[in-house]
Specification:
Chain B has 7 helices and no strands. Chain B has a single domain, classed as Four Helix Bundle (Hemerythrin (Met), subunit A). Chain B is elongated and about 70 Å long. With 231 residues, chain B is mostly helical. In chain D, helix 1 packs antiparallel against helix 2. The chains are: A alpha+beta (333), B mainly alpha (231), C mainly alpha (541), D mainly alpha (103). Chains A and C meet through helix 1, helix 2, strand 7 and strand 9 of A and helix 4, helix 6, helix 9, helix 10 and helix 11 of C.
């Protein structure tokens, strides 16, 4: 029976046991109060059942003490739930700095995934265990949601912007990947598998699927092919700001605001360049909307991210042999 | 209560509906009902004000440019027209409270005319927008303030979508108001409203002033904010 | 002897005859019956969609209907049930009928507007029905953009217009109730003497008036975007799909309280009458209704925890969501405490009330699960959520609606329903409900996403249980339909006050006369004072 | 029976004075719009609009003479508009504060 009727999902990420602990706490509180109410009602209903049609009970007046007690105690318990849930949520929201980036593009009705080493997959995601994975996700059409029950995490994938999800798998295995936000006809077909693998198996998998080029490399080809360097000169002498050292830095805008140059900002600056103009520059960049796909865009983002690191000296593209797969610390800057 | 209503059958008792005990109760109920209706209107326009605020905070530069492309003088003139119509409306209410039957009709007609002028100016402004290709859609195009200033057409369309949604729904409320005024004028000419019974004039007055208040906010938000950038 | 007396008397049903006397009626009681008829139609329509959904989900493969049809089924199930059944259900039928009577009024403040709101519901319903018959709509009842504006190839506009028009019906009902409670109370009917059903309908009316207009304007924007492609929520033009979700849930979360607050009001009546005691902590229960109405507007963002809303906004919305737990807990505890040393009858309405308290407790407590941010990330958009809101809406609202219908049936129709059958159906509904929806909590935690047409094999056993439960539930709902109709002709003639209840609505004949009371009642006692109704006083304890 | 116990009739002069104030404010807000006050442009425009709203509501709509209930209704409506704006902007303004796209 056990295999036919599983009642509890596998827990295969670092956060999963913590979500389960919270679930057990919530369940315990709920069970306590449910039993309390059910038993009390049963007891009162039997004990005080009507014995004669004309009986009239004496009034029992409401008591202030009771009312305060059963307001304050439940409220206290809910505040425990709130704090516990909130701290977990903060962990789920902030990927560790050393997380391995993976890019996800959702479209009706498939998941397109690209690793920074350049491997592409559809409806499958191969990852090493014990290594934080950071997904940067967007959608080509409608809202989707990237949901891996065994990892206890999900995030909507929204067109027009990037969303982020991270997890560290703890057990090798094959886990369900679901689209959790209704996205049309074959919503229930927008499913796949996450393969969590031992590091050496993962390495083997990477090597058995050698890509033509890494993401940053592909991005650099796109960058040059579209003529971007004509204006965005690396030394800053061009008509447009230099992109070297841009990623993760603070950008001062013409309208007085300051923002951190993250993936979202870079994406927006390519498709809707006039949204945020850098102080000191005109708004002369034309939009590249329609000329680049979401998959091109993530490659460009990955390239510009690499440019962000380049100030520290010429480094090979990440994902090429022997290079650590790390992204710069956004929050530190 | 009900027995006190055995007064000579004048219009007041004729207008008393059977679910009420007294005319005062009926008037109170109607007034409260109207105010609650106006609250729903606040929330109705509230959704649009929210969308405006969110997008303006996201794209302040484009909104300033787009806002500058609207003719502020027509907007200001129209504000004056609408405020004047509020004055004539409140004078109509006053005339009704005093039972000055001829003045009610006069002020109501003035209000209606001013409302018509407002809508006419509004139509002219929309037509200008049409000529300038500022109607959201495939033909949309908004020029920058100078050659160096390329405007994000998508964001500019957002502004004009909201502009037309907000002024359009406001104008729709004006049209409804004009219809209600016509009804009032028709009834007032028959001498229906007296010092004792004038609730409809009062309530439609409230509605008219409310529509005025909406415009009082639309005017600065759509026409004025960041106007200085366009100098 | 009673029989002849009742038959000779004129009441609101025999006061005039003919289609016109119904379609042009301004009597709140007749309008309530028009509503009853309309929402019952939509309930069975929504139920039919639910049946097809459950049949499809018997097997993991999509072999009963196509994916396209399945998507339309769950969308139309949601639209029919929420906008055309649950929201109007208790306020527009039981509320319409009894709110004026309970405060000693001859009618609502604006009877013509009351009739207009019924017509608006019918017109809105016809739009929605047209959309369903013409080919259906497949966006989910939530109409998320950009799917609804750009990608869906179904009857979005007609359905949205239907909801828009029905929304005005809801606004006008709310407006009417607020003014009625403020201005139409009988002499002596002070605020602290109002029956709790009136309090909760008043609180509901506030939500209807303050929330529904935002839905209306959202639908207008959706309409413009879909028809003219002007891009208010279109990400391609810089629009924000999440803004749509804010606007939608600003109404649709409080809408849950539009559904459940009147149900709580019914339960307060039932618990009091059938234990012959004043509701324990009357003032707390009354203020709890108001608190829920207000707090309900501060929590909508908990539907957006994974929707790329800011983490800080998520934090605030989660925190505020827990505040709603307090007034809800106050109500449950006070109902339970009312039973203490009462004289508890097991009449059918009371069985439904017990069912409500139990199921609402489970629904409410699982709501606490969902408000916990870290937990919600895992279960949102899964069957856990589906189970949770069905516990609230079906286990809560429909249980109370059924309880209220049984309780007031003698007053509405002048006939008693068959008690034995009614008890049986209450039991069947309770069991069927739990069998249908409890497995869905487990399904959800295991990761079964909602709105899935085909699903992995390991979820099948729980789905089969759920479908089995649904067929039991269907029987439970069909039984009252049959015996209620049967009772209209064959039911025992109802006395004016069959339950020994104390409300003003029981102090007039069954069915009530056209203007409810022969003369305007003057109220001199607190609500739920049974000493004048039941002569003898016996202390029990 | 007097049904108009709380009906105050303002003088036509009051109405005309209020009207003139409204016109002055309209002229003022239009003129100020051409002056660069930085972020205060918005503040000034909205403050003037609120003043105009108050004038219309208090005098033309007779809130000045109305019952407490009516005032409560008006305040409630504005409060609810505030809730809608405040909580939604609370999300929009704080997006990206943790430095992670989509959070």
């Amino acid at each position: 029976m056990g295999s036919n009727l599983p009642l509890f999902p596998e827990a295969a990420s670092t956060i999963a046991p913590d979500v389960d602990h919270l679930a057990v706490f919530l369940l315990a509180v709920a069970a306590f109060f449910t039993v309390l109410i059910f038993v009390t009602i049963f007891y009162f209903a039997i004990r005080y059942r009507r014995r004669s049609e004309r009986e009239l009970p004496l009034d029992t007046h409401g008591g202030m003490t009771l009312e305060i007690l059963w307001s304050v105690i439940p409220f206290g318990i809910t505040m425990v739930m709130f704090s516990w849930g909130a701290s977990l949520y903060f962990r789920e929201s902030r990927p560790p700095d050393n997380a391995l980036p993976v890019y996800v593009v959702g479209k009706q009705w498939m998941w397109k995934i690209e690793h920074i080493q350049g491997q592409r997959e559809i409806n499958e995601l191969h990852i090493p265990i014990n290594r934080p994975i950071r997904l940067t996700m967007t959608s080509e059409d409608v809202i989707h949601s990237f949901f891996v029950p065994a990892f206890r995490t999900k995030s909507d994938v929204v067109p027009g912007k990037y969303s982020t999800e991270w997890f560290t798998a703890t057990k090798p295995g094959k886990y369900h990947l679901f689209c959790a936000e209704y996205c049309g006809n074959r919503h229930s077909g927008m499913i796949g598998w996450v393969y969590a693998m031992e590091p050496q198996d993962y390495e083997k998998w990477l090597n058995s699927n050698p890509p033509p080029s890494t993401m940053a490399e592909s991005g650099s080809k796109l960058f040059n092919g579209m003529g971007c360097p004509a204006c965005h000169k690396p030394d800053g002498t061009g008509r447009c700001p230099s992109l070297v050292g841009l990623y993760g830095s603070t950008v001062h805008l013409a309208d007085g605001r300051s923002i951190v140059a993250d993936a979202d900002y870079i994406r927006e600056s390519i498709v809707l360049p006039q949204a945020k103009i850098v102080a000191g520059y005109g708004s002369l960049m034309p939009t590249y909307k329609g000329q680049v796909t979401e998959e091109d865009l993530v490659q460009l983002v990955e390239y510009i991210k690499w440019l962000g690191d380049k100030s520290e000296g010429n480094k090979p593209f990440p994902g090429t042999q022997g290079e650590p797969l790390a992204i710069p610390d956004l929050r530190g800057k | 209560m009900a027995s006190e209503m055995q007064l000579p059958a004048h219009e007041e008792s004729l207008a008393l509906r059977e679910q009420f005990d007294t005319a005062a109760q009926q008037k109170d109920a109607s007034t409260l009902g109207m105010w609650i209706f106006l609250i729903t209107e606040i929330m109705f326009f509230g959704g649009l004000f929210l969308a405006y605020t969110v997008y303006r905070s996201m794209y302040p530069g484009v909104f300033a440019v787009a806002s500058t492309s609207i003719n502020v003088y027509w907007g200001a003139a129209n504000t004056v027209v609408l405020l004047t119509s509020s004055l004539t409306m409140v004078l109509a209410v006053r005339a009704a409270q005093l039972g000055q039957k001829r003045l009610i009709v006069l002020f109501l007609i003035l209000t209606l005319i001013l409302g018509g002028v407002f809508l006419g100016v509004k139509a002219k402004e929309w037509y200008d927008k049409y000529e300038e290709h500022h109607i959201p859609g495939p033909a949309f195009h908004l020029e920058g303030l100078n050659p160096d200033n390329v405007v994000s057409q998508g964001h500019a369309q957002l502004f004009f979508s909201l502009y037309f949604a907000m002024t359009g729904l406001h104008a729709f409320h004006m049209v409804i108001g004009a219809g209600l005024l016509l009804y009032l004028i028709f009834e007032a000419r028959k001498g229906r409203y007296t010092a004792e019974y004038n609730t409809p004039v009062d309530l439609i007055g409230l509605y008219w002033h409310f529509v005025d208040i909406i415009w009082i906010f639309l005017f600065p938000l759509l026409y004025l904010i960041d106007r200085h950038l366009g100098k | 002897m009673i029989t002849t007396a009742v038959q000779e008397r004129e009441h609101y049903l025999n006061e005039s005859y003919g289609i016109k006397s119904w379609l042009l009626t301004k009597d709140h009681k007749r309008i309530a019956l028009l509503y009853l008829f309309t929402v019952t139609l939509f309930f069975f329509l929504g139920g039919a969609f639910a049946t097809m959904i459950r049949i499809e989900l018997l097997t993991p493969r999509g072999n009963f209907v196509s994916n396209d049809t399945y998507n339309k089924l769950f969308t139309m199930h949601g639209v029919a049930m929420i906008f055309f059944f649950l929201i109007p259900s208790i306020p527009a039928t039981l509320g319409n009928f009894f709110l004026p009577m309970m405060i000693g009024a001859r009618d609502l403040a604006f009877p013509r507007i009351n009739l207009l709101s019924w017509y608006l519901l019918v017109i809105g319903g016809l739009f929605a029905l047209f959309a369903m018959l013409a080919g259906g709509v497949d966006t989910g009842w939530t109409f998320y953009t950009p799917y609804s504006t750009t990608y869906s190839n179904s009857w979005v506009i007609a359905t949205a217009l239907g909801i828009f028009v029905a929304g005005f019906s809801s606004i006008l009902t709310g407006l009417n109730f607020i003014v009625t409670v403020h201005r139409m109370r009988a002499p002596g009917m002070t605020w602290s003497r109002l029956p709790l059903f009136v309090w909760s309908n008043y609180a509901t009316a506030l939500i209807q008036v303050l929330g529904t207009p935002v839905l209306a304007v959202t639908i207008i924007l959706l309409f413009c975007e879909r028809v003219f492609h002007i891009g208010i929520f279109d990400p391609a033009l810089g629009g924000d799909p999440v803004l749509f979700q804010h606007l939608f849930w600003f109404y649709s979360h409080p809408a849950v309280y539009i559904m459940v607050l009147p149900a709580m009001g019914v339960i307060s009546e039932l618990v009091s009458v059938f234990s012959r005691k004043r509701v324990f902590g009357y003032h707390f229960v009354a203020y709890a209704s108001m608190a829920i109405a207000v707090l309900g507007f501060l929590v909508w963002g908990h539907h957006l925890f994974v929707a790329t809303q800011s983490v800080y906004a998520g934090l605030v919305f989660s925190f505020l969501s827990y505040f709603v737990a307090v007034p809800s807990a106050i109500k449950v505890f006070n109902w339970t405490a009312t039973l203490y040393k009462g004289s508890i009858s097991f009449a059918t309405p009371m069985l439904y009330a017990f069912g409500f308290i139990g199921l609402f407790t489970i629904g409410g407590l699982t709501g606490l699960f969902l408000a916990a941010l870290g937990f919600d990330v895992h279960v949102t958009d899964t069957y856990f959520v589906v189970a949770h809101f069905h516990y609230i809406m079906v286990g809560g609202t429909i249980m109370a609606y059924m309880g209220g219908l049984h309780y007031w049936w003698p007053k509405i129709t002048g006939r008693m329903y068959p008690e034995g059958w009614a008890k049986l159906s209450a039991l069947v509904v309770f069991l069927g409900f739990n069998l249908t929806f409890f497995p869905q909590f487990i399904l959800g935690y295991m990761g079964m996403p909602r709105r899935y047409h085909v699903y992995p094999d390991e979820f099948q056993v729980l789905h089969v249980l759920s479908t089995a439960g649904a067929s039991v539930l269907a029987v439970g709902y069909l039984m009252p339909m049959i015996y209620f109709v049967w009772s209209l002709k064959y039911g025992a003639i109802a006395p004016a006050n069959p339950w020994g209840a104390s409300g003003l609505e029981w102090k007039t004949q069954s069915p009530p006369p056209l203007h409810n009371f022969d003369e305007t009642p003057v109220v001199t006692e607190e609500a739920y004072d049974y000493s004048t109704v039941i002569g003898e006083e016996v202390q029990i304890g | 029976m007097s049904n108009d116990v709380h009906q105050h009739i303002d003088s036509a002069r009051t109405y005309v004075l209020v009207f003139l104030a409204l016109i002055c404010l309209t002229v003022a807000t239009t003129a100020v719009a051409f002056v660069d006050l930085g972020p205060f442009s918005v503040v000034v425009a909205l403050v003037i609009a609120c003043c105009k709203m108050l004038l219309v509501a208090l005098f033309f709509m007779h809130v000045r003479h109305s019952t407490r209930l009516t005032r409560l209704v008006v305040l409630g409506g504005l409060l609810w508009l505030g809730i809608l704006l405040l909580l939604t902007l609370g999300d929009v303004m704080t997006r990206g504060w943790v430095g992670v796209p989509g959070r």
